[in-house]
Amino acid sequence: MGSPSKTRRMKPLGIQLYECARGSPISFRSCQALVLILTFLSYASYHATRKTTSIVKSVLDPKTENLGMLHWPSHLYLQDLRDAQGNMTALYSGWAPFNADDGTALLGEIDLAFLGVYAIGMFFAGHLGDRVDLRILLTIGMIGTGFFTAAFGAGNWLNIHNFYYFLGVQMMAGLFQSSGWPSVVAVVGNWFGKSKRGLIMGIWNAHTSVGNISGSLIAAAMLKFGWSWSFAVPGVMIAVVGLAVFLFLPVGPEMIGIEEDIHEKDAEKDDMSAPLLEERSASKEKAVGFIQAWRIPGVAPFALCLFFCKLVAYTFLYWLPFYISHTAIGGVYLSDTAAGVLSTLFDVGGVVGGILAGHISDRLDARALTAASFTFSAIPALFFYRIYGSFSLYSNIALMFVTGMLVNGPYALITTAVSADLGTHSSLNGNSRALATVTAIIDGTGSIGAAVGPLLTGYISAKSWSGVFTMLMASAFVAGLLLSRLVMAEISAKMESRRPDAAASDLPVSSMEQS
């Protein structure tokens, strides 16, 4: 542990003021609660700013007679299409250049620009995160994200119709957003141990869905004042939360001088208080290199699996409100605001899926088996949502909830508990400076898929939404296959552990612990 003066310099200003007012140091439990709350709000605000684009899409690119109305199979939609054409009278004028014939494709390119830069920036942010103060990195990312999110909406106020303005703004927003995920996972990993990590992080990871839901509701509510406010309000919100992060977020126990408390808690075998890595020696540790992190057993298959998981999840994130508003549900087309509100049920299912996947993986001690089971189960859910989701509002709600649960379950598990597990893998020999790098590799690879999915959707949906759902089902299938080797290893390890001659052994069950 560093000297008192050095610790004081590293301690956030807000905590220093709190301790001065209280007259005593902040407790370990208080720091854990503060970390969970601030990182939760931080990443929820990140997702709230991302979700605005999907809500505003239907305003920027007005409805057309044919887009997105093709049902599967074809004999079900021909008569509905003829009947619905008479009702498509209230069309929006849109916003140039997105109201042109290629508007849907342009919106897909905007998504690609954002997510492409986000994915590339993720690798650099993770590498940087293991070397700089995560609190500063996270603060800069949040304030920068807020500025460029509001700048996109300012295009309405400034009457800007240049496509490259919106493209450039989204690219900068993606760059600043890339600092978020490696930072929050590394900070939480510094404060919480491995026991029940899947359940804890599954609950904590609800920030993704909470952010999506709040972003959808805020953006939809602001539409009546003009679509620019749908960007400006979330932009201001994330900047305010970023300021709170700067003032109060304790990155690690050693930075606020309570490392001794941790070892006392650890000696009491309190799993919630045990540090992620024991017996740290910051002076001897060196940050893990990019190539070395890729070689950690389990990183590559989970990273590639997340590529396809996020392809599916982010296609829903960016296109679900657009799909709902362009598809007759029970013979009725919903307004943009109603479609945005209805789409939040996908994220509600995602909250349940993330918690359920984390809890199951803890009980089974089998991350790969849990993730693969969810991805394979998502295939029939996607099929049924496409076929029967348009029959009635109730069928749409039920199927959307189940689909969100099965799609977001493995996504949440891999980006949280799995990343933390691999970032503290036994092959690192206790080195704690790998969390941000490993997290960035896994989520960065996944973010490439997140960029590809919405881009392809922009082109495929112009011809048929059935093609989009075929792509999503194929992606879920490949995601499950990529984990097959780890699944077999976990099953084999479990069978081995149940043998009488292995009952007394301490062999790990999880395939990620095997070298």
Descriptive terms for the model:
515 residues, mainly alpha, globular, disordered N terminus, Major facilitator superfamily (MFS) profile domain-containing protein, transmembrane
Question: What features would you describe in this structure?
Answer:
With 515 residues, the chain is mostly helical. It has one domain: MFS general substrate transporter like domains (Growth Hormone, Chain: A, Up-down Bundle), CATH 1.20.1250. Helix content is 70%, strand content 0%. It is globular and about 60 Å long.
Question: Structural class from helices and strands?
Answer: mainly alpha
Alpha-carbon distance between the two ends: 32 Å
Q: Radius of gyration from the CA trace?
A: 23 Å
In terms of per-residue confidence, which ranges show pLDDT below 50 for 5 or more consecutive residues? 1-9, 64-91, 260-284, 503-509
| Number of domain modules | 1
Strand portion, in percent?
Answer: under 5%
Under CATH, the topology can be stated as Growth Hormone, Chain: A
- What is the makeup of the main sheet? none
How much helix is in the residues? over 70%
* CATH level-two architecture: Up-down Bundle
Give a quick rundown of the structure.
With 515 residues, the chain is mostly helical. It is built from 21 helices and no strands.
